[in-house]
Amino acid sequence: MTPPPAIDAVDIHKSFGATRAVAGASLTVAPGSLVALLGPSGSGKTTMLRVIAGFEVPDAGSVHIGGREVAGPDAWVEPEHRRIGMVFQEGALFPHLTVAKNVGFGGADAARIDECLTLVGLADRRASYPHELSGGERQRVALARALAPRPDVILLDEPFASLDAGLRSTLREEVARILRDAGASALLVTHDQQEALSLADLVTVMQAGRVVQAGTPREVYDRPRTRWLAEFLGEAEVLAGTAADGVVDCELGRLATDPAHRGPVEVVVRPESIVLGPTGGGPGAVVGRVVARSYYGHDQVVQVELGSGRRVRSRSTGAEPWEVGDEVAVRVDRPVATVAPDPDGPTAGATAGPTAGSTDGPSGPSVGPATGDAA
Ligand code: ATP
């Protein structure tokens, strides 16, 4: 028999006065997996986490943890009895207790405390006090404390937000490794797209209290369901197009896309799939002129103006010596996503970038590469 999901939250609603913090959101965490709950500020992530933890009573919907109903029309289990471990932004350790006593606070015995401290690489700091540790070490102790009672699920609320950038990236990889080594099921709340895409097995994206899309990092990035999501997850050039039979015609030419789409669409092209080359590619080649170039060492972004005056960005390794004024052939080297046209925004000449304040877009057709790996 397949084990039940570690978390199954279904159609959760939660308002605070007139504010609809969560408006019918569902999410699932499979056993042993790490799911990121990603969204801009105010999208309802923390409220969703607090409903799952039992710190908020949902107005409607149900929550099962490890197959047991903990919140629902006829069920309520107090947070301390939900078999969850929590890690907050600030580790919230007891300052007057040693590392070992902090980890053992939930009742773990000495052997389990040692096991968890070894897992987080801090076995030699068991007698230290929290103020003697760095911020990253304190978060690892907080994680050991959350893991010690062997909970059904670990909930992490922006656990790296208070750390500086360098430490944050090291620690988040470390935490993902620890969770995997422990076989833990975990839900990580974050507003950081890179964090969600790089760490999680699945990403659930919230916008305005709803789940816009849930999928693997590659699915949500390569096949975003809405324009808002495409732009929230990374750089995107969004062009008007017409789709039919697995291809879409737009200013960048005839591109492969999901065969399910027909008619007017918006075409989402990532700058890293826009490739520049020498002109002379024959009839049909899209030609543009280089208007700006930003060199970042590991890569570069070249801005190219197309015939219509529309500018698109091409991100590449930086080896190509394009200069402002060069005429170049512009090619898209992989299938693109298409989404339903956004009634609120013209596509031509649109600038890319997060549009965190935008309202719910239409839930467009699901999109995807016509070929290639979508997994
Ligand atoms: P952030 O990343 O900024 O923490 P979030 O996605 O976690 O944002 P929530 O904290 O869940 O979003 O908040 C969603 C909405 O609900 C916001 O408009 C917020 O102001 C509101 N809200 C959350 N908690 C309360 C509360 N206790 N009382 C009143 N309004 C609340």
Q: Could you give the topology of this structure?
A:
Layout: E1 7-16, E2 19-29, E3 34-38, H1 45-53, E4 60-65, E5 68-72, E6 75-76, E7 84-87, H2 99-103, H3 110-119, H4 135-147, E8 153-157, H5 165-181, E9 186-190, H6 193-199, E10 202-207, E11 210-215, H7 217-222, H8 227-233, E12 237-244, E13 247-250, E14 253-256, E15 263-269, E16 274-277, E17 286-295, E18 300-305, E19 311-316, E20 327-332, E21 337-339
Parallel strand pairs: 3-9, 3-10, 7-8, 8-9
Antiparallel strand pairs: 1-2, 1-4, 4-5, 5-6, 10-11, 12-13, 12-15, 13-14, 15-21, 16-20, 17-18, 17-20, 18-19
Helix pairs in contact: 3-4
Properties at a glance:
375 residues; alpha+beta; Rossmann fold; OB fold (Dihydrolipoamide Acetyltransferase, E2P); 2 domains; 5-stranded antiparallel sheet; 20% helix; disordered C terminus; binds adenosine-5'-triphosphate
Question: How does this structure look, described?
Answer:
The chain is an alpha+beta fold. The chain has two domains: 7-219, 3-Layer(aba) Sandwich (Rossmann fold), CATH 3.40.50.300; 227-339, Nucleic acid-binding proteins (OB fold (Dihydrolipoamide Acetyltransferase, E2P), Beta Barrel), CATH 2.40.50.140. The chain is 20% helix and 33% strand. Strands 7-8-9-3-10-11 form a six-stranded mixed beta sheet, with helices on both faces. Strands 2-1-4-5-6 form a five-stranded antiparallel beta sheet, covered by helices on one side. A hairpin with a 4-residue loop joins strand 17 (286-295) and strand 18 (300-305). Helix 3 crosses helix 4 (135-147). The radius of gyration is 24 Å and the shape is globular. The chain starts with 6 loop residues before the first strand and ends in a 36-residue tail after the last strand. The relative contact order is 0.12. It binds adenosine-5'-triphosphate. The site of adenosine-5'-triphosphate has 12 residues, from strand 2 and helix 1. Residues 16, 19, 21, 39, 41-47, 191 line the site of adenosine-5'-triphosphate.
